[in-house]
Amino acid sequence: MRLPAVRGDRGQTLPIYIWLTGILLFAAVAFFVFAQAASARNGAQSAADAAALAAAQEARDELVDGLVGAIGGDLDWLDWLDGDVAVGEGATAAAQKLAADNESTVQGAAVPVVLNGYPGFRVSIQTDYTVGDSIIPGTEGMRAKADATAVIQPRCEVDPEADPLQPIELDCDGQIVIVDPEDFDPDDFPDASVLFSVRLAE
Questions:
Q1: Predicted confidence band at 187 (pLDDT cuts at 50, 70, 90)?
Q2: How many angstroms separate the CA atoms of 130 and 101, rounded?
Q3: What is the mean pLDDT of the chain?
Q4: Alpha-carbon distance 144 to 127, whole Å?
Q5: Element (H, E) at 112
Q6: Which residue range forms the structural domain that includes residue 99?
Q7: Per DSSP, what are the bridge partners of residue 98?
């Protein structure tokens, strides 16, 4: 009596192999699409951070220029050390330049804000580059967007009873700056970074 031939397993495992391969390929493509989007998003955030910092740094420079101009001629020159004055005419242009350097465009203008009592600027950008081609329809033309805010924080402390007409000692985070309104030389004035810090808002 002849026994029936045992059918091989190869024919049964081939569909499973094809199915698993398809799943792995789909997962790989999905991961690639996600990585593309994440990369674009990270690039957009970096560009927004740089643009916001540039806007605040430009405003800080304007702030120090105004302070220098006020010393000796304005009895309220000490108010400039609080940073609570209207500056930032060149903030948007500075933000636009840094955004362009990072292949992005500022949306609108750098917006003045006040956070925790500190003046600053919020900047929104959109990347000039797209997410890129993928199997998901419509994503090839998508651009990443992001926004960031940077603030200007005074570093110097001054005696509230100080006479603005007399020599004044400023303690700028441990660095002593002496300002004599009667014998003031702008060339001897410290860098803007000594008087004010610029940082991204959390």
A1: confident
A2: 16
A3: 81
A4: 6
A5: strand 111-115
A6: 10-200
A7: none
